[in-house]
Amino acid sequence: MSRCSVAVAIVAIILWVSAAWAGHEDGRVLVLAPPLARADALWMAAARGFFKDEGLSVTVRWVSSGREALQALKESRDKQAGAVAFVVVGEMLALDAWQSTEGEFAVVAPLARDADGYVVVARATVRSPDALRAAGIATQLGSTAAWVLGEYLRAHGMSERDVALKHEPPEAILSWDPAGPDIAAFVVREPYATRALQKNGDAVHRLATAKGYAHGYLVLGASRRYLREHAGVAERLLRALDRGRRHAAEHRDDVIAFARDMFGTEPAVVDADYAATERLLGVDPTVVSDMRNLVHWMKEAGLLGATADPRTLFELGPLRATFPERLAADDAPTTR
Question: Residue 248 and residue 250: Cα distance in Å, rounded?
Answer without folding.
Answer: 5
